[in-house]
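Researcher: Here's the sequence for the chain we discussed earlier.
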Amino acid sequence: MPREENALSLDRRTFLAAGLVTGSAVLMGGGLKTAPMAKGLVLEEATLEGLQAGLAAGRWTAVNLVRRYQARIRALDQHGPKLKAVIELNPEALGRARVLDAERKAGKVRGPLHGIPVLIKDNIDTADGMKTTAGSLALAEAPAPKEDAFIVKQLREAGAIILGKTNLSEWANFRSTRSSSGWSGRGGQTRNPYALDRSPSGSSSGSGAAVAANLCAVAVGTETDGSIVSPANANGLVGLKPTVGLVSRSGIIPISHTQDTAGPMARTVRDAAVLLGVLAGSDPKDAASREADTRREADYTRFLAKDGLKGARLGVVKHLLGVHAHVDAVIQPALEILKTQGATLVEVELKSAAYDDAEFEVLLYEFKADLNAYFAGRGGAVKDLAGLMAFNESRRTDEMPFFGQELLKQAQAKGPLTDPAYLKALELCAQARRDILGLLEKHQLQALVGPTGGPAWLVDHVNGDSSSLSFSSPAAVAGCPHITVPAGFVFGLPVGLSFVGGPWQEGLLLKLAYGFEQATLARRAPHFPVTAAAPR
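Model: Thanks. This is the structure I predict for it:
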């Protein structure tokens, strides 16, 4: 057995159960039971294509997959390193797997997600045996959502199995000025699988850690500003924040109707492309998505080609370089690879800080309005933002042991969405899209590129997060698509390269990202356990 596996302090039977090596044992509950043989099934770095090939050949079933992923989650998430990436397992997953296995046996295969277990973030509604809480105890006893979120319906119709829900930074990291990414009152602190004392980043922390640790093949995250691409960067993943409106937000606990979107988190560009194709689509309940059906691609994998960088013109965002020497040591060679693969690089200036204050103002106003609307439709003891704040005060020991609710208070103090201050900030934010489109047009660029962020920082419940570098805000404020791809490591911690494009250009970004991914193959699975990544 590899040295890393012995170091987990788990016995060999548990590792067999977790799917780290081939075998027929699966861990169910607290004991080891025998399940039908799933010959050759290894979950580590499994792709959607590989899992589908095994299903099609009869080497394993959807039931096998659910049981093996459940076992791996129990072994690595609840025991062993205690990643705390998964906040809840779906009690209906096995039943759904049996139905999908029967469909396959009868000759009906819905598509590339048929029979595939998928994890989703715990701010996405499901009308099943699971809760939807945004990590907050305030929603833990609320009535279950009345219906699935639109994207959950899309996943189910495509044959995906909702395996469970992932932990997150509580309220999608919009609660405190010094929060710790990946911490929630309900789920505790999610850990980075590359270094357990490091942050998984947020707010889609659990989705990022779960995919990185092979607790699922793919997961769904959500982003307002950085909440897909930042945890993807910190966990060595491909993360794609789509154009706002390509993916419906109905049934997702909101921050901002201007910036919110769900999107795929995966270990490969191809898997992200497959998942995006399922998530995208127009929803009558989300006006922003009215163009999605005419803008979406039937198959995003058609853009994937090894020579995807050939002939591309890319704008390197200058202010992102020279910030972190170790990040530069990864990104500069990555930029050279872009050139050797046929891309032309042009240095550009993008002054994203110019609209930071306006973005924050918009988020405060919209969080109050949008969250109050969600509470009104959900039901339960907490009726609005004011009630949420009162609940947190009543449960300070559980909800605020490390940090407070300063952002909730600031949002509560805002007026309606007709306030001149809000409308002025909204107009200033519109400049972000004009800036990006202006740069792309001026220099005849297909995308902007730069480091996604810095390496994961130490988890610090006393001082909060300490990120020093981020490329998330321009695309987030502009509502433009943004994809990050693993580029390398800083003292064993992943760092990603970002591609940001114009609205509805997901196919183009996937093409560029795939070309870079195939030229580098930079992703490496984490090795357990690691307690410190670098000298302090």
